[in-house]
Amino acid sequence: MISRRNFLKTTAAxxxxxxxxxxxxxxxxxxxxxxxxxxxxxxxxxxxLVDTYKCVGCGLCVxxxxxxxxxxxxxxxxxxxxxRYVITKDGKVHADTPKGARDGFTTSKIDLGVGTExxxxxxxxxxxxxxHGPNAVHxxxxxxxxxxxxxxxxxxxxxxxxxxxxxxxxxxxxxxxxADGVVLVDRTWCIGCGYCIMGCPYGVRFFHPVYHTAEKCNxxxxxxxxGLKTACVQACPFGARQIGNLKDPSDPVTKIIMTERVGVLxxxxxxxxxxxxxxxxxxxx
Length: 285
What we know:
Strand content: 15-25%
Shape: globular
CATH class of the domain at 4-79 and 156-278: Alpha Beta
Strand order of the largest sheet: 1-13-14-2-12
Number of strands: 14
Distance between the termini: 24 Å
Order of helices and strands: HEHEHEEEEEHEEHEEHHEHEE
């Protein structure tokens, strides 16, 4: 694992770089990946594969995840979500994820989140106006279809990093990594300090609205450890999500990762994310 000092240095460098868009387009070298995995003698290393070409933003994965993992359906938090990107011909990037895309994208307007009537900046795309006072309003941006250059959806979830910073910053060991690579949270040990939430460069952690402990995607560990698919993989009708064992060369997911052009998010942080993307666009944040 990377040291906390190196992680903070890397994080600072990433912030200073202003979230470099090209870093999202990092292409995986199969030979390097095989060499790294060979060092680990365990027989299983869970990885996730997302095909952005197949995602239609229906939100069925988000619904399934909430129902499976005790996340209140109406709560403005979610373990996995889908982002919509609309790139206009002037090069501007418009992105949103209303309610985490729990209900899909029901309008062509871009959800800017909740702001104030006097022109204040929207600040929470998951929030409801009533949560921000009497002057709060939900704001949208309408884009002329003729101005759109391209548009696509990107599912996101915990990257189950090989070098997870969340594990390193947890002062009580409530966040830990299993032998097969999945990062879990023990609610009975979590003290709610929030260090792991601040330490995650992917923004996938949050406080559970009922238990008030750190929460995130865990690849439905209670399911995959029994040979089942994750709830989101099972719910996706288009095969945009897949989970597999990187240690198994015959696994369909492993074959794709090793033979096709795949990328990861924010490679510059040195966390070695284990969620791989097909068709990852450079505009993805």
